[in-house]
Amino acid sequence: MNISFDLDSTLIPNGKEFETEKLGGFARLFGIEEIRKGTAELITELQNQGNKVHIYTTSFRTKGKIRRILKYYGIKVDRIVNQEENQHVLKSRNINASKYPTAFGFDIHIDDSKGIEMESERYNFRVIIVEPTDKNWIDKIKNELKTLHGAID
Ligand SMILES: [Mg+2]
Question: Which Gene3D superfamilies does this chain map to (predicted)?
Fold first, then answer.
């Protein structure tokens, strides 16, 4: 499966919403940002199961910057879609939503936004919504993916 992750408030905290991995002051100087605790293990596990993992964000961070942040934590993803690309593609397809994972070949998108959940119903794409405060977020994702797997394959 092609699985995409949102960044802000899903993997990268907005303030102190969730526990994060250790980040040295030196890395911070170079623009590395904090990342949610357990992110690297989760993504690696999903990849080892044969999934492709992508980032799909409405942030304007450059793809290079996002790749550098992930690399710092030992994470390598397939595709990164930032807001610049997202806006361009959605506009060209006349889609009036903030996100439309289908346009990028993503089977399931993981996000914190209730707005995206509503859009997923209107535009018929699959999402897993994870609350920033959910300490069992990894189990939630794994369980929902298991349930969905049968539906997609
Ligand atoms: Mg978000």
Answer: HAD superfamily/HAD-like
Give Cα separations from 19 to 15, 47, 109, 111, 148 (angstroms). Answer: 10, 23, 22, 17, 27
Q: How far apart are CA 95 and CA 104, in angstroms?
A: 13
User: What would the pLDDT profile of 92-137 be if each residue is shown by its tens digit?
Assistant: 999 999 999 999 999 999 999 999 999 999 999 999 999 999 999 9
CATH code for the domain of 132: 3.40.50.1000
Give me ligand 1 centre to Cα 12, in Å. 8
Buried b (16+ CB within 10 A) or exposed e, 27-44: beeeebbbbbbbbbebbe
Please check whether residue 30 lies inside any domain of the structure: yes
Cα 9 to middle of ligand 1, angstroms = 5
